[in-house]
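Feature request, filed as a ticket because there's no other form

It would be nice if the structure record came with a short human-readable summary line next to the tokens. Right now we just get the raw output. Example of a typical job, pasted below so the devs can see what we mean:
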Amino acid sequence: MKQYFFLQKMIAFCLCVPSVSFAINPIKESAVISSQMDEPGALTFRPPQGWKIANPEELSPRVKLMVVGTSRSYYPPSINIGTEPYKGSLRDYLRMVKRVNESLGSQWKDLGTIQTQSGKASLSQVDMNTEWGPVRLMHVVMVKNRTVYVVTAGALKEEFSDNYKDFFDAFKSIKLNPDVFELVSDPKERQKLEAEYQKLIRKQDKIAFESEEFQTKHWTPFLSLLDSRFAHLGGDWKEKTIQKIHRDLTTDYE
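Raw output as currently delivered:
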């Protein structure tokens, strides 16, 4: 249900593009941007040259980043990144995308897949009527590491072909940073870490960390493992790993 409302808010935000303000300087050629450039698991992409980054303070909490181009009309083309904790399958998520758009009276179409820098991702299209006229959105969706990544490009339907190349160049440049597990270069050590992670995940509960038993039997030994076998990865890596596991353990995915 949370993902259902996430999708509704993402689509609604795409219709608020004309009201957002932007950074003063346009994006330079070959720039790669992300809301969290150096964060493990963060999504990056190469936006169209000359577009501007929307003021992050004006974005929906579900939208991590937005870039906006220019238009002959009041509704400019845009690309945004949304993420949400999610532990289901891509197929199930796309079914939910279809249901959400049908509930809004929009026409949703599955276009298959697109090749990104991090492998194949789902590509779909939405046509909807708005106060600015017919608008077309395209979604690139990836599911990895208990997170769904949704990159949405949108423009007036009559101007969509003018932005087609910019949109697809951006889509093809999408890349996910290595997550905390992938940053462990030794395969055996990575396998050990992932196995211990799976043991913790089986204890998933929003109040797990309030349990003395969980702290004593599971969490404290795991922290000791990080210190004894993964100290060479540094304090920042340890902190990011703890943050990820805390999120995965306590998130309500329903």
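Something like this underneath would help us a lot:
Residues 26 and 52 are 5 Å apart (CA to CA).
The helical segments are 2-14, 90-103, 160-172, 187-201, 212-229, 234-250.
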